[in-house]
């Protein structure tokens, strides 16, 4: 166990600011690496706010040696552009904790991290960036990580912080369950509506059919998930506040590239690999992809 690990965080947006603030509160302030310069980071939560002193570094040349632990919270669509940060921050002794949606973090990070150990995570809390660049934390911070020896470095860093960490011996199943939730949230992009839309009988029926397709692919990939999962997920969406959005809808409405491939395309890709028909994905994925990337 390292006594005073050097901790960096790449991508100080909604999720990154939350983790940076949680670390700062207990005296483990990370070096913050971003795209846009900010003098400090501000997290608003139910009881107040936390200010993480900056500045946010914007030039990877400012990093002179690799770090022990690197949290990465850029969107998956921004990973290529973060390559210079990862090259500067990582070597084979580094642990990289990917704070991103999806089930493919290990393969996606491998080309960039100079042999570092990559730990995927499931991020369970909602947080949103406000127009003034502060972040509004809308739930209790919680991560699930795989139960592996390398996880101890992340656990030690987050111990005693406001961010709870669960370990899972069957991380693959947990990650796929979250992916199903993300995949069906993509339907909000196609309607331009928030969670309230799942209270419609026609949308909840469509969501169930789509989730059953996703479930078949998840199981073929090794996830252990029961037949009840699609209905449970629809029930959750029906209980959310009707105005609760999702980050992919926020990206769509702001005209930013969307994480359609890691949230929805992945089901179609893995379905093809496994020989599973994915008729719903075959309709949904091109619509999301074109909405994100154009042309037109
Ligand atoms: N937000 C949520 O509630 C939530 C919940 C669960 C999971 N997730 C997942 O968590 C991940 C992060 O999402 P988010 O909502 O936190 O995204 P976000 O708010 O858009 O934050 C992304 C951050 O990365 C920065 N960035 C972009 N390109 C960069 C680069 N080349 N180098 C360094 N920094 C760069 C952005 O800088 P700028 O300030 O310049 O844009 C921004 O600060 C995604 O995979 C998302 O799906 C999000």
UniProtKB/TrEMBL annotation:
Reaction equation(s) it catalyzes: (R)-pantoate + NADP(+) = 2-dehydropantoate + NADPH + H(+)
Segments forming domain Ketopantoate reductase C-terminal? 170-289
Keyword field: NADP, Oxidoreductase, Pantothenate biosynthesis
Which top EC class applies here?
A: oxidoreductase
What Pfam families does its record include? ApbA, ApbA_C
The answer on whether this UniProt entry bears the keyword Magnesium reads no
Named in its record, the pathway it takes part in is: Cofactor biosynthesis; (R)-pantothenate biosynthesis; (R)-pantoate from 3-methyl-2-oxobutanoate: step 2/2
Q: Which domain of life is it from?
A: Bacteria
Q: What InterPro entries does this protein's entry cite? A: 6-PGluconate_DH-like_C_sf, 6PGD_dom2, ApbA, KPA_reductase, KPR-Related, KPR_N, NAD(P)-bd_dom_sf
**What EC number(s) does its UniProt record assign?**
1.1.1.169
Family the entry assigns: Belongs to the ketopantoate reductase family.
State its role. Catalyzes the NADPH-dependent reduction of ketopantoate into pantoic acid.
Which PANTHER family does the record associate with it?
2-DEHYDROPANTOATE 2-REDUCTASE, PROBABLE 2-DEHYDROPANTOATE 2-REDUCTASE
Q: What's the protein name? A: 2-dehydropantoate 2-reductase
Annotated source species:
Kosakonia calanthes
